[in-house]
Specification:
Layout lengths: L25 H23 L3 H4 L3 H6 L9 H19 L13 H11 L2 H14 L4 E7 L5 E7 L10 E7 L6 H4 L3 H8 L10
Antiparallel strand pairs: 1-2, 1-3
Helix pairs in contact: 1-4, 5-6
Bound molecules: manganese (III) ion (MN3).
Manganese (III) ion binds next to helix 1.
């Protein structure tokens, strides 16, 4: 998706709607993917319609170059390009529950252990960060060009691409990601999400 260009299309969910149960139920996935994600795609196409030069860029190039966005369209592009990028990453990073869980391996695991002491300590710190985000947004693990790992909260639809960093992990902590199933209990949703989130392979 980060290499896609205008006009953007909603990527199909890479698994069945029931595949993430019991952590995320089919009703939540239908709303989140078919309604919310689709709306970001539609609104990004609308926002870019008057700007042929921006239409030539890939989604990742567009996000990395906010200096090119016209002032009158700035908010729309940030909100919707970010929304498309973040949701594509999030849905692609989820996988059915397995007994052993989906743990980072190799270089990524080594980098996490170097930065945070242990994988358990990283999980704890990341979960606290997700719980502390006020309002709507995302909790991310990213890596900068010098290889430094960072946990951060991204308000609304900000992305790690905006900060010139590579996204490694993204938790959607907007209420629409969990409210149908977990109601107001964000901490329960975050705790369960560790069972279905997968990590990229850095080698
Ligand atoms: Mn969402």
């Amino acid at each position: 998706m980060q290499n896609s260009t205008y006009p953007y299309e909603l990527p199909p969910l890479p698994y069945d709607y029931e595949a993430l149960e019991p952590v995320i139920d089919a009703e939540t996935l239908h709303y989140h993917h078919d309604k919310h994600f689709q709306a970001y795609v539609n609104n990004l196409n609308l926002a870019l319609k008057p700007y042929p030069k921006l239409q030539q860029l890939t989604l990742e190039q567009l996000l990395a170059k906010p200096g090119l966005w016209p002032r009158e369209a700035y908010q729309d592009i940030q909100h919707n390009a970010g929304g498309v990028y973040n949701h594509a990453f999030y849905f692609n990073s989820l996988a059915p529950v397995t007994e052993e869980g989906h743990l980072p391996e190799g270089q990524l695991l080594a980098a996490i252990e170097r930065s945070f002491g242990s994988f358990a300590a990283f999980q704890q710190k990341f979960s606290v960060e997700a719980q502390s985000l006020f309002g709507s947004g995302w909790t991310a693990l990213s890596v900068n060009k010098r290889g430094v790992l960072k946990i951060s909260n991204l308000p609304n639809q900000n992305t790690t691409v905006n900060q010139q960093e590579q996204t490694l992990l993204l938790f959607d902590v907007w209420e629409h990601a969990y409210y149908l199933q977990y109601r107001n209990l964000r901490a329960d949703y975050v705790k369960q999400l560790w069972r279905i989130i997968t990590f990229p392979n850095l080698g």
